[in-house]
């Protein structure tokens, strides 16, 4: 009499497979990594969600200001002295400035230059600092010593004071010139962070294994060292972006940054500072826009730092 295997129809499919002599299928395990874990933490972090939402909104405002206002500060009839310093109303939410220009329209359009300066400066600083820091940390020796001593010269000069001196000699300021000046003074910070991160990673086991397998220096640098060393740079760059926007506003406020007929929040604050007691709305709205922008980028940077730093988990 042959044995008969009876399978309970309500039993799980894994049990039926085991009864039939087959191994139950295992669910694929999630591959953990620094970046995947960080992304998961960021999605659950309300500070990052709020900051990223504000940043996305500000980027859309700077890219397509026409979606948020029908007027243009560059139109021939954009300003009317008859409207000078009028208070906010239902039709004109932010009121008018001393020249009779709509403050809301100018605030929206000023986002472009202010944010472009921040993004362009951060991009230049990150590229220059990462490349030089990667080179100094990986090669070491005399090259590392020369680059390290060279960066110490820049650390001896306060960024804002150095920017004021350079822009005063530069003459007429614009978005590109302000970005280049801020980048020239800001890259040493990224250089030192990248150099230290490369030195800490270049003796790890995966680098030794890659060398043993015959990988060249270029492949090891960009395939193994760079992805593992760039995390702290991303954190500092995200926070610094807001700082550079504030620095541009400070230079423009002092009259050595972005110059008319261009507009920026710093210029608006500078023009309104003399009339603050008479018409505080002219200063408060662009100042609030600047503060919210800087705060949004700092919130994103802080959240990214917490997600990428294993010690804070």
Automatic annotation (TrEMBL):
Keywords: Cell membrane, Membrane, Transmembrane, Transmembrane helix, Transport
Pfam families found in the cross-reference section: BPD_transp_1, OppC_N
Subcellular location: Cell membrane
Positions of region (Disordered): 1-27
Bilayer disposition of the protein: Multi-pass membrane protein
Residues of the ABC transmembrane type-1 domain: 111-301
Domain of life: Bacteria
UniProt record similarity statement: Belongs to the binding-protein-dependent transport system permease family.
Official protein name in the record: ABC transporter permease
High-level lineage: Bacteria, Bacillati, Actinomycetota, Actinomycetes, Kitasatosporales
